[in-house]
Amino acid sequence: MSASYIPYHPEQQQLLPSALQDWLPQGHLAYFINDTVDSLNLSGFHMRYAAGGPRNQPFHPAMMVKVLVYGYATGVFSSRKIARKLHEDVAFRVLAAENFPAHRTIREFRALHLSEFTELFVQVVRLAREMGLVKLGTIAVDGTKIKANASRHKAMSYARMQTTQAALKAQIAALLQKAANTDEAEKNEPDLDIPAELERRQARLAAIEAAKARLEERQRQSDAQRGRSTDDERQPKDKNGKPKGGKPYQRDFGVPASKAQDSFTDPESRIMKRAGGGFDYSYNAQTAVDETAHIIVAAEVVNTGSDVQQLPMVLAAVKIHTGSAAGQVLADAGYRSEAVMAELATTQPDTELVIALGREGKVLVKPRDAKRYPHTVAMAAKFETAKAKLDYRKRKWIAEPPNGWIKNVLGFRQFSLRGLAKAKAEFKLVCLALNLRRMGAMRAS
């Protein structure tokens, strides 16, 4: 006797059209993103198309926003992969409602609306606060390095720029001399397309000179911040221009180190040390996370590896996004700075700072000059109390999980866009998607 199976007829056509919404279970993230985006103000996205004009009929901005946000919330960042998902993934098809924009359309929509996505991040933070998921009692600030969309093989050190620049100038001079030779002399030379060779070398020389100028300008700014001047003759000097003690500077004002590098693919990215060893062209992503539900209330990006000067910028963003300052801020020793603590005491006097002065569990050399370092001495005294130690222990489980989710759950380890401004906007899109994913999970639970 043969077995009896549930009917299976893959060739059978459906007699009535099916509803895509029936293909996803209730409580699916796609539904939450769909409903949330519909509740947000998308006027900024619509403004670009309001003028009309002779162009193809655009896709609806709400649909494009939903597809992009859901893509980032599920770890699909490539416009090509999103376009493929629109055909293969039920959740994407539900959000797109049987629209199939090409990958170029998705890419261009994202690039054209970076400022609008930034504003959308702020709207989601405020929505989370209305839902009671952001209370600003305690927030923790942390930074993480994210790889830039820049090739390590398309970069050059300052020393190599100098040697390559001289070599290219010599080659260009030789080609110009060859072009000036008589026709009789050229007959004995192998065939060579001199104009094409000149153009290629001149373009290469221009790129190197621009990169060299960027490195030198960056070094001049760094030297000026250290109190150096163009006429210091490599000698440390005080504010009055008089020589003071200390080792002489190794290089003249504005001259970069030989190993200083610049990228040709993303000049605004910087070489930064990555976790586990090694170096990559990266950006430093800063997040401020609320204690209540791990919602990211500020997401900023800088192209300096150090966190030490970033706290005022991040806390100012928190105040702008939420309309009020946090009651307490937790930060690790990377943010320790007497000048920063003095600034925040003036700009955000109602916010309690708990900033570590060193690695946890290490014996620290505590500052004793209260006149010179009043805020640092006061912070050291605060960490002698049991309350401050207990408060600071919360920092790890508040600040670090969202960065882990961004890299290990969403899989966002490298920016798709190039340039600091675009990286800032893309990181806000990532944090916007993560916040919605978190809000959806909290709502379901």
Automatic annotation (TrEMBL):
Species this protein is from: Polaromonas sp. H6N
Region listing for Disordered, in residue ranges: 214-267
Ranges where the Transposase InsH N-terminal domain occurs: 20-111
GO biological-process terms attached to the record: DNA transposition
Name the UniProt record assigns to this protein: Transposase
Biased composition (Basic and acidic residues): 214-241
Keywords in alphabetical order: Plasmid
Top-level taxon of origin: Bacteria
Single GO term (MF): transposase activity
KW Nucleotide-binding (keyword) present: no
Keyword Cell membrane found: no
Domain (Transposase IS4-like): residue spans on this chain: 276-436
